[in-house]
Automatic annotation (TrEMBL):
<dbReference type="InterPro" id="IPR050563">
    <property type="entry name" value="4-hydroxybenzoyl-CoA_TE"/>
</dbReference>
<dbReference type="GO" id="GO:0047617">
    <property type="term" value="F:fatty acyl-CoA hydrolase activity"/>
</dbReference>
<dbReference type="InterPro" id="IPR008272">
    <property type="entry name" value="HB-CoA_thioesterase_AS"/>
</dbReference>
<dbReference type="InterPro" id="IPR006684">
    <property type="entry name" value="YbgC/YbaW"/>
</dbReference>
<protein>
    <submittedName>
        <fullName>Uncharacterized protein</fullName>
    </submittedName>
</protein>
<dbReference type="InterPro" id="IPR029069">
    <property type="entry name" value="HotDog_dom_sf"/>
</dbReference>
<keyword id="KW-0378">Hydrolase</keyword>
<dbReference type="Pfam" id="PF13279">
    <property type="entry name" value="4HBT_2"/>
</dbReference>
<comment type="similarity">
    <text>Belongs to the 4-hydroxybenzoyl-CoA thioesterase family.</text>
</comment>
Amino acid sequence: MDVPLHYSKTIVRVRYAETDQMGVVYHTNFLIWFEVGRTEYIREKGLSYRTMEEKGVYLPVLESHCRIVASARFEDAVEIRTWIDEMKTRKMTFAYEARRGEEILARGTTVHVCLNERRRPIRIPEWVRDGLLPGRVRDGAGNGTSPPA
């Protein structure tokens, strides 16, 4: 998995409750951190889950994958890198890397389908597609791509 030029970067600090009896991060926490990274990626693009859902657009997870290659421990600062790996007509794939400094701890993906308010598959609306694709970053004043009124 190649990391693109544009990705979102989110730092999470490992909490004691996120570790197991062996003193390492319990595996499911990587998926939780990927969600944190995805939410921040969307926010950096000037959108939010709340805004999309208020407009009748939902992006549930269809599939998730995580490969852990090194352990993280209590109080480690873990950087979550998030980007869109693929966008199709009705589905999109987010990709993630969890790092401690330059060391890769985990890599993963989540696949999402676009649904309407009746929970039926729909084409990804243009305002969502344009808002989330690379190259769209909110400016310092908080301006970004917005959904139609």
